[in-house]
């Protein structure tokens, strides 16, 4: 793990949790246990009741009142958001490769299913675990529970991929068999959908389990029966096998060579509204029940033009990333404006301390919340453990959508150079995602905005060029699609969050009032 990513002990406990009635959420056979927990706690003695144990969240779910509301164990009624992710590959499910549940399969298919269900690195598990650990920081959503279950009906937004896959033979052949399709015009608002861009004990109801100390895996440098998902990018390759040539290709980076008008025409053709969904029946999912947010960072930009407000909110993002990087060696790896949410707050400030320096950051009524950790890489050490455990999202697997961003264990391609986790990736990626929204006239316009120069610096490569726009500064993206992600991972090194805090001295104060809560980044 790089020097900018560090692991500290975290207060995470495992215990026996009450069985929940989840029919109102369209979930069957719910259980709080998922395989990543076996790598953090000693679970051998649990035997057949292991599935009844899960993470003990401080405000855990007592019962579900309705599709949008729960009661917590301490008697609070809370509005919640449910983030639900399929465990198995949606693409392979659509193709019918998994066959009928419960029937024999080829050894290759059986292994694929087992790996996805049982692997601690499965993206859905990593996302749930990461959300649970970071929930103790006020700049991440509170988490009330994690459930692994069978979804009666699961809806997936495929709008971004529909044009590429709709005429494939497997898509036409399996339509109405392994999945159902819902197509609506962008102006039709009748279908609502949420988009998005882990010693023996007495086995009582509140039993805690010890951590497990084993050899660590190193990371080197709608209501009712319908469950709606976050947006998922489907692998559109016709072949499931990754050849040596394709493995080589995914590590290559191609910069844009098109003319400026081509890019403008392409932008005009894009539509931000969802229009295509597929529906699966009886599929295994992970549901993280969390704090309901009010909107995204893009919503803040649309509703508030005050540059001082923008700056304070971005510094909240920096504080959140710095805390996560220095606590669980965290990289988000997909941080764009839709993965930065907010809640309304009456608190005037957020307080944090970094290396002895106190930061008091105004909220202006909005508390930032970073979400969606299915592509995260983290290193977690439960209190008392000697060595941390690494959890690296399966989205980096050679068969999956993020292959090529890094080259690290457990997905290391040995004949390719190692590409370690990059502590600058998240802040640089966030800057690229909102730069044109905030500064539409481009890098050569003299913007009087406190974030203009920092954003440009975060997007600067080692050779002085920008990872976002071309050397001609023609307001044209230098990289398109996933090439941008790969370029940021390799070339951007000027956006380490804890270091970038020093840019914002206006938020430093000598000390805090004794009664205010604060969190620490570096002691």
Automatic annotation (TrEMBL):
Protein's recorded name: Protein kinase domain-containing protein
Q: What SUPFAM superfamilies has UniProt attached to this entry?
A: Protein kinase-like (PK-like) (SSF56112)
């Amino acid at each position: 793990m790089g020097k900018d990513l560090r692991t500290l002990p975290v207060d995470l406990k495992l215990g026996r949790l009450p069985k929940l009635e989840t029919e109102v959420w369209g979930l069957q056979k719910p259980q709080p246990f998922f395989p990543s927990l076996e790598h953090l706690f000693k679970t051998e003695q649990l035997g057949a009741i292991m599935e009844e144990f899960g993470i003990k969240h401080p405000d855990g779910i007592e019962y579900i009142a309705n599709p949008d509301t729960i009661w917590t164990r301490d008697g609070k009624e809370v509005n919640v958001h449910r983030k639900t992710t399929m465990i198995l590959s949606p693409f392979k499910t659509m193709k019918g490769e998994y066959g009928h549940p419960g029937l024999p399969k080829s050894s290759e298919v059986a292994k694929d299913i087992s790996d996805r269900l049982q692997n601690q690195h499965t993206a859905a598990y990593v996302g749930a675990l990461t959300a649970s650990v970071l929930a103790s920081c006020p700049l991440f959503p509170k988490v009330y529970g994690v459930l692994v279950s069978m979804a009666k009906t699961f809806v997936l937004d495929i709008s971004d991929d529909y044009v590429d896959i709709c005429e494939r033979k497997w898509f036409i052949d399996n339509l109405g068999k392994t999945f159902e399709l819902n197509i609506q015009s962008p102006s039709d608002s009748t279908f609502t959908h949420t988009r998005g861009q882990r010693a023996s004990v007495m086995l009582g109801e509140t039993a805690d389990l010890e951590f497990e100390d084993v050899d660590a895996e190193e990371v080197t440098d709608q209501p009712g029966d319908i469950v709606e998902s976050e947006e998922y990018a489907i692998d559109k390759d016709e072949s499931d096998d990754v050849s040596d040539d394709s493995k080589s290709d995914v590590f290559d980076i191609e910069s844009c060579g098109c003319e400026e008008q081509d890019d403008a025409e392409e932008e005009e053709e894009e539509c931000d509204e969802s229009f295509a969904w597929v529906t699966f029946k009886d599929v295994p999912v992970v549901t993280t029940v969390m704090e309901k947010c009010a909107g995204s960072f893009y919503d803040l930009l649309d509703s508030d033009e005050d540059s001082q407000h923008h700056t304070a909110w971005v510094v909240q993002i920096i504080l959140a990333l710095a805390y996560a990087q220095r606590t669980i060696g965290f990289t988000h790896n997909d941080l764009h404006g839709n993965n930065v949410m907010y809640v309304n707050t009456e608190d005037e400030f957020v307080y944090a301390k970094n290396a002895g320096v106190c930061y008091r950051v105004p909220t202006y009524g909005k508390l930032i919340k970073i979400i969606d950790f299915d592509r995260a890489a983290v290193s977690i050490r439960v209190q008392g453990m000697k060595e941390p455990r690494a959890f690296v999202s399966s989205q980096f697997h050679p068969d999956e959508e993020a292959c090529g961003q890094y080259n690290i264990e457990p997905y290391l391609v040995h004949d390719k150079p190692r590409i370690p986790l990059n502590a600058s990736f998240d802040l640089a990626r966030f800057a690229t995602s909102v730069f044109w929204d905030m500064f539409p006239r481009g890098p050569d316009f003299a913007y009087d905005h406190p974030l203009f120069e920092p954003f440009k610096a975060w997007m600067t490569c080692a050779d002085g060029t920008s990872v976002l726009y071309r050397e001609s500064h023609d307001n044209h993206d230098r990289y398109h699609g996933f090439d941008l992600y790969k370029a940021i991972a390799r070339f951007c090194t000027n956006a380490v969050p804890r270091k970038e805090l020093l840019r914002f001295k206006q938020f430093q104060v000598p000390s805090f009032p004794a009664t205010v809560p604060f969190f620490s980044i570096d002691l």
